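Collaboration report, partner site 2.

Our partner group contributed sequences for two proteins of shared interest, and the home lab folded both. The records are reproduced in the order in which they were received, starting with the first partner submission.
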Amino acid sequence: MYRIAVLAEQEAERQRYAEQITRFCEAKGLFPQVMQYDDQERFFETAQKEAPTNAVIALSGVAGLNAAEHLRSLCPACRMIWCSDLDFSLHAFRLRADYFLMKPVSEEAFQRGLNAWIE
């Protein structure tokens, strides 16, 4: 079973990503557990107990970089889509993020990221 974590500051953003993930997975015949987090501390506490299989990191600035680095160190096998308002594309490559997106993120671009998870 897929355990997908969505970490984003704004509730509307978390909800939008969660809905897109759910629609995408249902179209593929998958029914994941999608958890939403606005607090990095709670997110990483949960990740230590039960690592997510996939994660969307959508935090602004250096907070997103720190979260992506910490997630990779805690859960090296976790598939990651990283959305940022700053160009951390080289860092994303170094951290083996499956997909890196610059905000604002369109639904089409996010769909390409989700497709990278199942390739």
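Second partner submission, folded after the first:
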Amino acid sequence: MNDSAIFQGLARAMSAGTPPAAWPMAFWKNCFFDCPVEVASHLQRFAGRQMQDQVQLFSELSKEENMANAFTKEAAFLQQSALAWSSEMLEVAELVQAKLLSSTQTAAPPEGPASTH
């Protein structure tokens, strides 16, 4: 979640326990606030890891004496990165699906001890 005070305040205001009858409001909240914030946060973490890996590779390549090996290592990294982005987009799609479907689900009745008569 974003550390901004504005986002935290909005999150507190919007998550006061939406009753099941008000699911359109919960859907709106998920669609226009929760889901975009979650997706942006997820992509930021992924892009940060990818950039960190690229910088580490550049550091290793600066010590490489053979340019052919350096190009081969960079090409391998770019191929791995493309595959990682592909799988990341699938994860984002699953995240969006879960977020949007969760707002349409009615709250399950609380499960208590079964009474026997």
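Feedback sent to the partner group on the second submission included the following. The chain has a mean pLDDT of 79. The radius of gyration is 22 Å.
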